[in-house]
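Attaching the record inline, Q. Sequence:
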Amino acid sequence: MKNRNYYIKLLVLIFAIGIFSACEDLTDLNKNPNAINAEDGNVNLLMPSVLGPAAKNYLNLGIGNMAGAMQFIQQSGWAGGTNYFEWDNEGWESYYDILRTNALLIENANKNGLAFHEGVGLTMRAFLFGQIADYWGDAPYTMALQGNTGEIDYLYPEYDSQETIYSGIISDLETAVTLFASGDVTSVDGNADLYFSGDPEAWEKFANSLLIRYYVRISNKTSESQAAVEAIVAGGMYIKSASEDATMDYTGGSDDTWPLVYDSETSSTRNLSCSTIIDQLNVTNDPRKSVWFAPVAVKWVADTNIEGEASDMLADGVPTPILPDWIDYQGTEVEYTRLYNPNDVERNDSEYVGVPPGLLQADIHSFNGCENGAQGRHNYHVSMLNSIFMDGSPEPGDLLQARILSAAEMHFTLAEMALDGWNVGDAENHYNEGVRASLETWGVEDDYDAFITEVSFNGTKDQVLTQKWVASFCNATEAWNDYKRTGYPQFTLSDEIARAPYPALRFGYGSDELNNNTSNVNAAIERLETTEYSGLIGKNSVYSKTWLLQGTGEPY
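Structure, as predicted:
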């Protein structure tokens, strides 16, 4: 009996051990070997996983939909988001994906006492949540990034107010500034820092510059902004020269190329210049024009001797229908011209010509007398983006960067604030330095003396914000935020556009939130304020006002 009991106990023990071992094995099997978790997330591996995607997202929007909204470019095909603000159902998954990785960066840096990495994480949390608040308004913030933990279901988080998010952004940035100011560079790998190569002073300037950006962003809604910005400027730790800009290089590798590529006539060649920016650059003889845009492929030449409105041949005898593809003659010394009779027809015969904003697609294809009307084909009487932005080449490398925040932005911002009476320095000096910094960014700093006489300071916000808008080329998101805050530049659109005659004010909440987090997103929608352009969509319209714009009278 004793032996029997012994064997029974032994079998039970073996069975229990087997179950325990199996549980351990199942646990190990259920671990995603590719997942990043708090236990094994190396901060120097996490950091580029945040910095790279964040910069790429920012650039892609700044040269894409926002570049259309701010009238730098127009597209000749597939242009709903760019030309017509079809932003009604925009998802924010990519931002929260980056924020999840960033949360691990902050957690591991804090746990291991790594001041620099924690400061980077806090700065990037502010930068990313700042964009979410800028684009959508209210959003998950305090309950975000936590999943389903404990008794609270974070899978369907409540929305914080836009005001609360901006307050959190400022708090994070102020903490980050303190961490960077300590000078602690423990465990810093410069190769992992895609922006500043592990320089804490550069990060301190960046964080302070973001503080200036966001304090000014909310200045119409709070009385605290002026004193805070004045203190930062007095301390001098903010981005003041183009060499200090927050940028990320593109290496030209297969996974790290400039997002616009001139791979086919029906894709990249649809990016045309907008008449709003071209007219501005033409009237001021701006040296950045030839850096950003290409001359028209075929220039109109007035000739009263020809019969009819225009010739059907190029001036060198080449028939118009067999005009070479743009990629064949761009950059060559051949100049194609076409004759028109100015008494019979009106044509824009400038070297640089832009498409008016908001035209219908068919009108874009035929604008300025172009007879090659196929969708996606290049309108050879309109300027395109210059080839350096379109062929993916890293040369000149300094131009092909994701620029997150610039000295030009800071100086123009402070010039505007100085005109409002803030103690941040001389308005004219900041204005001049903003112009200088932008010219330096685009490699035409030698033209500063001649150009500044064309745009000499006149003491108006209109001029300051216009030059700030010009300087935001490839970074149009900030121009859009300025437009919403101030109403400058005073854009209008074609009467033929199906929507409002002004740029939209926000992104509409996406279908994932509307379908799965319905009660919380609806509560946020109810806090929006409709405008005369919100239309049948109602409060979730791209033309409705978030907290930031409510009661300000801007931009319309």
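Residues 208 and 232 are 7 Å apart (CA to CA). Residues 2-29 form the longest helix (28 residues).

More tomorrow.
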